[in-house]
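sorry to bug you again but im stuck and you know this stuff better than me. theres a chain ive been looking at and ive put its sequence and its fold in token form underneath. id like you to explain what the token line says about the fold, in plain words if possible. anything you notice is useful, everything is just below.
___
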Amino acid sequence: MSHIVTVQDAVTAFAGWMEPTCAELDAIEQEMPVILAEVDLLDAQIITLDRIPSELDARRLRRARRRVLAERAALANRTAGASLPGGAA
């Protein structure tokens, strides 16, 4: 008879003492507008899964796509400006 056992390392790989660092939390906070915009886009896409999209659905999808693109551009501009040390060269 063979016994089924768990591998202790795999079970405790994500223990409570493994918290995100402050830098990781700051990165998540900076990306949060993009994440929320992508969630809104996903919601708009889910709504249209079981039916033919109406004009209102199409507008909602376009608006959500534009918002995602705008938030990604804003994030890219924020991170590009933050990564340049010193100032004008």
Q: What stands out?
A: Helices lie at 8-11, 22-47, 55-82. The CA atoms of residues 1 and 68 lie 56 Å apart. The chain has three helices and no strands.
